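Re: the 347-residue chain
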Amino acid sequence: MPKILIADDDPVLLKYLSAVLEKQDYQYATATNGIEAIEKVKTYSPDLMLLDVMMPEMDGLEVCKKLKDDPFTHHIPIILITGSADRELRIKGLSAGANDFLTKPIDRPELIARIRNLLRIKEFEDFLSNHNEMLKREVEEKIRQIREGYIDTIIRLTTVAEYKDEETAAHIRRVGHYCQLMAKHLGWPEEDQETILYASPMHDIGKVGIPLEILLKSTKLTPEEFALVKTHTLIGADILHESKSKYLQMAETIALTHHERWDGTGYPRGLREEEIPMAGRIMNIVDQYDALRGRRPYKSSLDHEVAVKIIVEGDGRTSPEHFDPNLRKAFVELVPVFKDIFERLEG
C-alpha cells in the first residue's frame, strides 16, 4: 500500500487531506513544519509527498529543493500545495523539483487523480530502477565468470611447467606476487596490479618449445643450446599473440621482453632503457632475484642476502646496469617482502 506524507501547518487542511487519503486506503503520516517534514521523510520513506508552500521554520520550496538534491530522496514525487495561482511561484516550484501543483481550495477528485497519476509514474520508475539494478547484477556476474575463466586458463597454462620441473613450478607461483608487489609500490592502479599478478607467471610459457634435455641440463650450455633457449621469448610471445584478454596481452609483452636489459645487452631484440615496456622491466628484476634464490639443475640455491647483493652490486655475470635504476631502488626498499614471499611459497 502506498505511503504518503502530508506536510502542512494548517490543522483544518491537514485533517481534510488525512480524511481523503484514509478513505482511499492510503497509509499516511503528517508533519506541521518544514524541518519536521524532512525528518519524517527519512524515517517514514513515503512514496509521495503533499507539501504546503507556506510553512514555518522552512518553507515548502526549500524543503522541496533539499529533498530533490538528496540522492536518497530525489525520487519521491512532490505535489506542492499553494493558495496562489501566481505564475512566478509555479516556476520557482518547478525549479525546486516539484512534480505537480494543487491550488487551494483543494478539489477532492483532482487531488485523488493527481496522486494516482504520480504514484503510477513512480511505480513504473521503481520498476525500471529495479530492473536496471537486476540487469547490472547479471552483467557483473557474467563479467565475473568471464574474468574467472581467463584466470583459470592462465593458471592451467602456467601448470605446463610443473610437468617439467617442480622448482620451476614454485618459481611461477612466486613471480606473480613479486610483480604485484612492485606494481603496487610504483603506484599502479589496482586493476593493473591484478593484471600483472596473473600475467607474469606466463613469462616462460615459451619454454614448452625447448627440448627438455636442454632445460634440465646440469652442465654449461653450448652457444648453440643457449641460442635455442633464448628463443623461448619469441615462442612465448607467439603463443600469446593477438589475445583480446588484458591478462594475455600483458603476458605476451612480458614473455617477449623479460630478458631485455636496461643497458641494451639483453635479448631477443637488444632493447634498452625506456624502449623496454615497464612490465618487462619489472619481470626482469624479479625473475633475476628468484632465479638466484632458486635451485636449478645447473646451480645451487643462494640465500637472500647474497641474491640481493648480486642484484645491487653485481657479480661479474649480473650487473646493476641490467636493471632500471628506479626499479632497482624499489627492489631495495622491498627486499624484506621479497624474502617473505620466497620463504612462504618456497615449495
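The chain has two domains: 3-132, 164-344.
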